[in-house]
Write a structure and sequence with these properties.
The structure holds 3 protein chains of 3 kinds.
Chain A: H1 2-30, H2 34-59, H3 63-91
Chain B: H1 8-22, H2 27-45, H3 57-83, E1 93-98, H4 104-116, E2 120-126, E3 131-136, H5 142-161
Antiparallel strand pairs in B: 1-3, 2-3
Helix pairs in contact in B: 1-2, 3-5, 4-5
Chain C: H1 9-35, H2 39-44, H3 47-68, H4 76-106, H5 111-120
Helix pairs in contact in C: 1-3, 3-4
Classes of the chains: A mainly alpha, B mainly alpha, C mainly alpha.
């Protein structure tokens, strides 16, 4: 019984996270300004990482954890680089 | 002791992170973690970071608990604003808070706390005038926000870091 | 679902609750990203998913694997520490960049216009 509840709530959680990723993707596409897109990308990364963690729980495999860590790292570096570019591109021309 | 561990906190964190990442306490991993801890700390000496002395572990625990409660509370508050009806009047805005704290690690911790709690956002800090600009999502009462930041966080951070 | 069937009921329910809570918070944050009106308001929204949302999914994952493998599985702490350290850095940098751009947009009378004026005068 409790295993069924867990299975269904994991599916529901994954659907919610997918919807969250869709929201972030819409913000990424729609903009309107560059910083909105970067913010959308950052949120997309965080949500993707959470989705991977739920995949890990669902399959009972810790392999997804490594992927989540890698995504978190990539997301951080990407957002910092983009923000830095935004600042430099405007301030120094 | 200080020769091999110039930054004991950092060494400890690296040691712990390695063992957690590998999920093992086998002698081989303990040796690797020790090498990483010593090497990482020695590498950091080349950067000459300002010294850090943590005081009053009780104040640290108190602050951590406070921040946890505040994160939960502000998550609920911001969630309500997002899901609530569209707001007519503009109530979010910038807030300038004069800070007395100058300790770099204290300021960094304050920035982390304020950004990690939804609803407050660190915009810029001018070290000369000590003026901190924040963006607040729910800016109804400016003096209340200033009192929260100065009384709740800054006082405790100054206790810990200065 | 490998092995979830032999999980005790309390662990399964606790994991389900924590994961649902985390996913819900992430979703609310992302909806806020869509719904709020200007950029500075929108920056507040994703923090929901990145702090409490991520925290509760990570704790759920820790509970699940620790009970499943009957030994403490704690490496999720690393993701949590990493997130709490990096989220403020990225957000502060992004807001700082935006603030610079806004200040530039407010006072456009700098380089380009001065350069344009010179040949005319």
């Amino acid at each position: 019984m409790s295993a069924t509840i867990l299975a269904w709530s994991l599916v529901l959680a994954q659907m919610m996270l997918a919807a969250a990723m869709a929201c972030a993707a819409i913000r990424l596409v729609r903009g309107p300004r560059a910083q909105d897109r970067i913010l959308g990308l950052d949120t997309l990364y965080v949500n993707a990482m959470l989705l991977l963690l739920t995949f890990g729980i669902r399959t009972g495999s810790t392999l997804y954890f490594e992927m989540a860590l890698a995504i978190a790292l990539l997301g951080f570096v990407a957002t910092v680089a983009l923000s830095k570019f935004l600042m430099r591109g405007e301030v120094i021309e | 002791m200080t020769r091999w561990f110039p930054f004991p906190l950092l060494s400890f964190a690296l040691f712990g992170a390695w063992l957690l990442l590998n999920e093992s306490l086998s002698p081989g991993h303990v040796i690797l973690a020790t090498i990483l801890a010593v090497g990482g700390a020695l590498a950091l000496t080349a950067l000459e970071p300002p010294g850090l002395r943590l005081r009053r572990p009780r104040a640290i625990a108190e602050l951590a608990a406070l921040v946890l409660v505040d994160i939960v509370r502000s998550n609920i508050a911001v969630g309500r604003i997002i899901l609530g009806p569209r707001r007519r009047e503009e109530i979010s805005g910038f807030l300038v808070v004069p800070l007395d704290m100058r300790a770099p690690y204290g300021l960094a911790t304050l920035a982390t706390i304020l950004t990690a709690t939804p609803g407050t956002l660190w915009v810029r800090f001018d070290p000369e005038s000590g003026l901190l600009t924040l963006h607040i999502l729910d800016l109804i009462d400016e003096t209340a926000w200033i009192a929260i930041i100065k009384g709740r966080y800054e006082r405790r951070l100054m206790e810990i870091f200065e | 679902m490998t092995g979830a069937a032999d999980l005790p009921a309390w662990a399964a329910l606790l994991t389900a609750l924590l994961v649902l809570l985390g996913a819900g918070l992430a979703l609310v944050g992302s909806i806020g990203l869509l719904r709020l009106e200007d950029f500075y308001q929108r920056v507040h929204a994703p923090t929901l998913g990145a702090t409490l949302g991520a925290g509760s999914i990570l704790i759920g994952s820790m509970v699940f694997f620790s009970v499943l493998q009957s030994r403490p599985v704690l490496h999720e702490i690393l993701v949590g520490v990493f997130l709490t350290v990096t989220t403020p850095v990225t957000l502060i940098l992004l807001v700082k960049a935006t603030h610079h751009r806004d200040l530039d947009a407010e006072q456009p009378a700098t380089k380009t216009e001065a350069g344009d004026d010179r040949p005319a005068g």
